[in-house]
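TL;DR need structure tokens for one chain.
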Amino acid sequence: MKYAFFPGCSLESTAWDFDRSTRAVCRALDIELEEIPDWVCCGSTPAHNTSASLAVALPVVNLQKAQQMGVPVMAACASCYARLRSANHKVQSDADVQERVQRITEAPYDGSVEVQHVLDVLVNRVGIDEIRARVKRPLSGLRVACYYGCLLTRPPKVVAFDDPEHPTSMDDLVAALGAEPVEWPMKTECCGAGLSMTHSAVAQRLGHKLLSMARRAGAQCVAVACPLCQVNLDLRQADARKAHGDLPETPALYVTQLLGLALGLSPKDVGLEALSISADSLFQDGPRATASATEGVS
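>> reply
TL;DR here they are.
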């Protein structure tokens, strides 16, 4: 199984632990990743707020390069995944867009390159049964709130490989690792995204609500698949607690980090040291007791 890997900007900088853990678990599961050569930024939020043409042309440049590689694309960042899929959708559904993008990129592209998120690859290509069979260190007793965020399942016609309102793929994966995914109502609520830079109070309020609800559901940590979600729930967690009331420190880990640990990889192999809210206590002597999960939640 081989993919053209699009890391994107975040995985090359603030989300290096997502990059490390993604590559590590892919190696462990015999998924070959070949990085797209000379890739460029997908455009993320700024491009489609600035220019409709640029928002499509930037991801198409990467898809054109991947097309030459002859294999499907895998992205880990939820925003990159959404932008790549959106570009495919626009090129396929609008001949004018396809023509305009061809003029900009100076190369044809018909939107035919398959794009998958790493979670989709793990659950639907590798398979839950295969992953369960490869677990070497079950995460028994660990209660996890699986957080999908905005971009992984919406808009459904463009990106979804799961139910847009009630996704279960990450929950199924976490359960295969021996952990217990908790039932909670905030799986696809917004974390505040880029508002953490421009309207930090909004992001703090949303982040605090997410973490509080995860704790009330009995979770000891939150699993994420988006670099911006991880930053808002991890790096900015202290600010959220200060602004809206205390709650227990709650690690926000990439789902690939949990998978890597269950596959027998070391904390360093999956970049666990990058977390602002340490998860060491969850894994040193086995997961923290479930009874402590809601302690201190108002």
